[in-house]
Amino acid sequence: MALSKVTDVIADLPLGVKATGGAVLAGAVLAAIWKGLGTRQANRKVYPRDTIVIHQIGRGPCVPSLTPFAIKLETYFRMEDIPYEVVHSWLRPSRKTGKVPYLEYNDLEVPDSEFILEFLSKEKNFDLHTGLTQEQIGVGRAFQKMAEENTYWCMMADRWVLDKTNMVWKVFRVPRILWGFGKRSIQKTMYAQGMGRRTPEEIRHIMSEDLKALSYYLGSKKFLFGDKACKFDCAVFGILAVMKWASFGGFGASVLQDYPNLFDYCERMKETFWPDWDEMIQTDCTK
Fold first, then answer.
1. pTM for this one?
2. For 223, which DSSP code?
3. Is residue 65 scored above 50 in pLDDT?
4. Residues in Cβ contact with 67 at an 8 Å cutoff, skipping those fewer than 6 apart
């Protein structure tokens, strides 16, 4: 029986039966995840001391990671020639936050891309803002937070909830029977955050206004503050890259096209720091 037929049958079941079946299904999913976690823990690689290990959700398609925060970290490490290793597994998120990416460094686990960079800057003794004025640091942080705390949620709504093709669910190979549950969970989070209270038209407008502000500031400059990229470029690029190359059936890419200098900026960041882009967007890439 086709999976779509199965979901139709489940929809017609009495509430009590569906509740029981849902519990059984959830238990089966959790058991599978637990088994996968156990296998990965047993086969866990031991790294030399002081190795920077970034855990993220895997390569491709279209972008080196479907989470912009992993792209941000890797772009920064590439920009500053900082050696690092990557572990690809969405089945092993941070024990502290339940999210990826996170840093594994010696016996420590550090979640959140920004805290990772701050931690490493102290541990490895490097300046995150080399060559920037205080004014530029202030402007850069403002644009980073706009992108990561506002534009990001527009992108999440567009990609995970509003996209009628459900392409991102297919890319992650989520069983169709779980799409409804997943969407409701994301909608609940987005409602609490605030973006979920907006209409699709309002979300698109907010995204466009964010990109307009960024476009105005970038102007004809090569990077945010001139000819040399900085940490803030890495953060902004992470969001824009996912929007440009991994919107799938959503409106993100079409909104970005309204701002040609941002479109070119993405290509410039890719060519400068990801010469191996084509290799790194393959889903079977283990690097």
1. 0.85
2. B
3. yes
4. 56, 57, 100, 101, 242
